[in-house]
Amino acid sequence: MEDEPQSKRRLLQQKHTAAGIHAPLRVFHPSSSPRREDADRSYFQSYSHIGIHEQMIKDRVRTDAYRDAIMRHQNLISDKVVMDVGCGTGILSIFCAQAGARRVYAVEASEIAIQIIAFIINSKTSTANAEIVMRDNNLSDKVIILHGRVESCGTYDMQDIEIEEKVDVIISEWMGYILLYENHGQTFEFYIPLNCARPLIPIVLVQSMLTSVIFARDKWLKPGGLILPSHATIYMAPFTYDEMYESTINFWRNVYGINRSLGVSAMIPHAKLCAFEEPAIETIGGENILTWPSEIKYLDCYTVAARDLESITTEYRFRSLVQAPLHGFAFWFDVEFNGPAVVPSESHSQLTDGSSSFNSSNGSSHRKKRVKSDQVIVLSTSPEEAPTHWQQTLLYLYEPIEVKQDQIIEGSVTLAQCKENSRFMNIQLQYRTGGQSFVKESVLR
Q: C-alpha dihedral over 9, 14, 19, 25, to 10 degrees?
């Protein structure tokens, strides 16, 4: 009996021929692996739904940054071979083709790859069939869609998936929450309570594919090749957020005027556990941040190894800029689109106490370059910048701590892969302030 991948491939080939399409736009399938874990299966299946791709493409900060970076590096992309790792709907592959790439290998493990081709094959306009649509977009002889995991390319089924050449450019939108978090990619809507003064925010659970990029880099990238994005930085800072605490916790202190003696307020400890036990994905603004941020981890995509991502530990030291209740710690990231020549020579994990500017810490050389936006394109998920679908990752404290201006908040944070499920992230936060010490452990799942 014909297996499912072969059946789908045969059906697509029949549709392709029936539509009169003869240009070399191709889809390849790896053999199904019996060792694939349920978590991986769920992870990739979630990306077959168009909703998650719609939300990402609608994120103009994200999409515009990639398009601008591609055009900024057009001289390194034109007439070159590009690999798009985790191409999704293929928008970055299209941008690269439009920038003059000679060939683009668009690698996608989810079934969205099949849907892309089905859409192209069945595309109908009043004046042209799919072949003309492809030709008019100058893609029919440039884009090769590879349906499979990048780690599978050339290993599961050499007959189906073959990349017989090195590539000049690797591009990927691989970032997840806190940059490195991996999840199953579900889509849902997150509702901020009405009295919280925050709008309805659609959320897509996104995840990091950096290990796939590293694999592709080591296997296919030519020496001196280009990686976009090229560098990434994780930040954290203490935050205050009275509105959220009021709407989720203090709500239980007076429910429809019912006296607390009747036991309604007994819900408060349980409400805190439900609301704050796990990290939250929310959007806050610069006004919520109490200090200058601290740099948690700086990654050079040209040199980082997969083992470097398994566990990250750093110490921090903040000096509060204002007097306010400390409700927790916020995490976010920046990525920059630079060439391989920028290699920082100093450590990027020194302590900061607020003496540096918001977009500058420790005087590191790569920070100085970021100031000149005409030289480096930066995609930032900072609370100070325009919101993105990544938002910020917030670790709430169970009890707010009142801090004074110039009060020191210090400690350490560890981000590590969960041993039970490598797509989850364990977060251990130790913090000290005002003569008190605390530890909070959370799982981003």
A: 30
The answer to whether the beta carbons of residues 221 and 247 sit under 8 Å apart is: no
> Can you list the residues of the chain whose pLDDT is less than 50?
2, 4-49, 118, 120-134, 153-160, 184-207, 342-352, 354-373
Which of 108, 182, 282, 336 is an active site residue? 182
Of 156, 174, 192, the residue at which a domain comes to its end is 174
Q: Which of 54, 111, 151, 173 is catalytic?
A: 173
What is the spatial distance between Cα 14 and Cα 235, in angstroms, rounded to a whole number? 51
Is-contact 407 319, C-beta < 8 A? yes
Domain endpoint, select from 146, 174, 202: 174
Is-contact 186 276, C-beta < 8 A?
A: no
Rounded Cα gap, residues 128 and 107, in angstroms: 28
CATH code of the domain in which 143 resides: 3.40.50.150
Cα 254 to Cα 265: distance, rounded to the nearest angstrom: 7
Residue 173 falls in the annotated catalytic set = yes
